[in-house]
Design goal:
By secondary structure, this protein is of the alpha+beta class. The protein contains 2 helices and 6 strands; from the N terminus they run αββαββββ. A 6-stranded antiparallel sheet has the order 1-2-6-5-4-3, with helices on one face.
Length: 217
Amino acid sequence: MVDNKLKTRSNRHLRKRRINRNLMIFIALAFLFLTILLSLIVLNKNAESDGNQDNSLEEQKVSEKEEDKKAKEKEEEKIKQEEDKKAKEEAAKEKKEKNSGNSLKEIESEKIEDSNVLKAFVGDWAPSGTSQKGPHKTNYQNGSQDRIEIKSAVSEVTGVSEDDMVEWRVENNGDQKVISTISDSDETEFYRVYLTWVDNQGWQTQRLEHLKKNDKK
């Protein structure tokens, strides 16, 4: 009887130890799993952080390339504008030199009635040339052959290139005669040109006036 009781107690104690051992193993495994899970989460966050950083660096590189491209394009555009300006200045200079060959005569200031005229000249200008044949009637419409040829004639006597010219007024001054008031695009130089039509030869300048200010604006 006593032996049976001892065996029963021993079995109970053994069973309890096994349960405790199994519980400890379970706890250890759970802790290990939790540790692995936390490690994976941390590694994933680090990977995402590294990925975001890489993306940020890549975006920064792309942005820098775009800025460099824009800066380069801006510099090229600036150089082109300077070259165009220089070409216009050279063309204007050539026209002035060409016109200087004409027998220009400056009108004495006391004979100039218009107070807005800084200087006035008359000369033996040649007609500018024309593609028009036969009887002529001046067409004042923008884009007409007369307006094209008038602009060309004015450019030749003033030295202001056609691309840089602003035509403020082209008006009738009598039979086959016009007055053209122009400036450069910067509006720093103003001219009034008197022209007469010569059949089959084009518009011929009769008088050139350098104005103090634009009186047709």
